[in-house]
From TrEMBL:
Domain Leucine-rich repeat-containing N-terminal plant-type: 26-65
GO cellular component: membrane
InterPro entries associated with the record: Leu-rich_rpt, LRR_dom_sf, LRR_N_plant-typ, PGIP
Protein name according to UniProt: Leucine-rich repeat-containing N-terminal plant-type domain-containing protein
Record's bilayer topology term: Single-pass membrane protein
Location within or outside the cell: Cell envelope; Membrane
Predominant subcellular localization, coarse grouping: other
Keywords: Leucine-rich repeat, Membrane, Repeat, Signal, Transmembrane, Transmembrane helix
Signal sequence bounds: 1-22
């Protein structure tokens, strides 16, 4: 019985204290995500508020490799993000496999650096007002 209670307690702590189990964020990725949020209007304010601390792997919409702390996914559909996709801030997320910025109010051209994300296998920029194409990068 005591063993079951201990397991239940550990299970509940995993849900109640997500920061305790969040992987540390790679410093370069932390800087890239903060730069991305800093250059967006409206929805970016909410991101800057929600994305606090140095454990970006525990932030809403951010997925990381548990061993390295490198960001592998950024899923921010329908977050009210407004403006152009900021500079090359996300270009330094070198291990990113998933980028979903769909259903926002992003404008301008599709950044050329997206084609240089060698690990990217899922990209969704739909339902924004972007022009241009993200061309595949041959390795």
């Amino acid at each position: 019985m005591a063993k079951c209670c201990l397991l239940l307690l550990l299970f509940l702590l995993g849900f109640l204290l997500p920061e305790a189990r969040a992987t540390s964020c790679h410093p370069d990725d932390l800087q890239a995500l903060r730069g991305f949020a800093a250059n967006l209007s409206r929805g970016g304010v909410l991101l800057r508020t929600a994305w606090s601390g140095a454990t970006c792997c525990g932030w809403d919409g951010v997925g990381c490799d548990g061993a390295t702390g490198r960001v592998t996914a950024l899923r921010l559909p329908g977050r009210g993000l407004v403006g152009p996709i900021p500079g090359a801030s996300l270009a330094s997320l070198v291990k990113m496999e998933v980028l979903d910025l769909s259903h926002n109010q992003l404008v301008g051209t599709v950044p050329s650096w997206i084609s240089r994300l060698d690990h990217l296998c899922y990209l969704d920029l739909s339902n924004n007002t972007l022009v241009g194409e993200a061309h595949a990068h041959n390795k």
